[in-house]
Write a structure and sequence with these properties.
Structural class of chain A: mainly beta
Order of helices and strands of chain B: EEEEEEEEEEE
Largest sheet of chain A: 7 strands, mixed
Distance between the termini of chain B: 40 Å
Helix content of chain A: under 10%
Strand content of chain A: over 45%
Structural class of chain B: mainly beta
Radius of gyration of chain B: 13 Å
Oligomer: heterodimer
Shape of chain B: globular
Largest interface: A-B, 23 and 21 residues
Strand content of chain B: over 45%
Radius of gyration of chain A: 13 Å
Number of helices of chain B: 0
Largest sheet of chain B: 7 strands, mixed
Number of strands of chain B: 11
Number of helices of chain A: 0
């Protein structure tokens, strides 16, 4: 199985900060990666698909980059509603696998 | 708008089975596969497998092989996930999600509790 190593597992940040979350794949997955936001008690919501394409309706402060084995989600100008847990998902090879999540908390 | 609406919470005893349903609307059901993902309490997301709504082909994570069956009914735009021989480790929220470049839209989740 492809392991998705996501870091950090948690971070504290202030409103307006720039936040970067990384996912590293144990083998190359081209750009077959998505980023998801999950708030407590809610289903995940996709932010980014194809490693760098913004899902319709998602604010432009979210961006994704990377290809192959190294991927990044950046939030430029953290907003109060962005405090949540974020996951990456690789869908290049079965079984699809998620990162373990990054909890973004208020500093 | 795309919507996936799942069945309600279930409680089962160890060794029993559960079948969760997922009703799709707002798009052509047969054009997109359906994945199932679960999340144990306080834990991360785990992909269980997916089913093609076009021809019924399935791909299951090895962890669930032999214990899970995913089916669809295109006449009613429904997807189903049955998990058998339940144990306490299967207590989780189970999500259906539409396949598109990974998964895009998600159901609201169904809590399955396994307890004696």
């Amino acid at each position: 199985d492809i392991q998705m190593t996501q870091s950090p597992s948690s971070l504290s940040a202030s409103v307006g900060d720039r936040v970067t979350i990384t996912c590293r794949a144990s083998q190359g997955i081209r750009n077959d990666l998505g980023w998801y936001q999950q708030k407590p008690g809610k289903a995940p919501k996709r932010l980014i698909f194809g490693a760098s394409s913004l899902q319709s309706g998602v604010p432009s402060r979210f961006s994704g980059s990377g290809s192959g084995t190294e991927f990044t989600l950046t939030i430029s100008g953290l907003q109060p509603e962005d405090f949540a847990t974020y996951y990456c998902l690789q869908h290049n090879t079965y079984p699809w696998t998620f990162g373990h999540g990054t909890k973004v908390e208020i500093k | 708008q795309v919507q996936l609406v799942q069945s309600g919470a279930e409680v089962r005893k160890p060794g029993a089975s559960v079948k969760v349903s997922c009703k799709a609307s707002g798009y052509t059901f047969s054009r997109y596969g359906v994945s199932w993902v679960r999340q144990a309490p306080g834990q991360g997301l785990e992909w269980m497998g997916w089913i093609s709504t076009f021809n019924g082909a399935t791909e299951y994570a090895q962890k669930f092989q032999g214990r899970v069956t995913m089916t669809t009914d295109t006449s009613t735009s429904m997807a189903y996930m049955e998990l058998r021989t339940l144990n306490s480790d299967d207590t989780a929220i189970y999500y259906c999600a539409r396949n598109w470049d990974g998964v895009d839209y998600w159901g609201q989740g169904t809590l399955v509790t396994v307890s004696s």
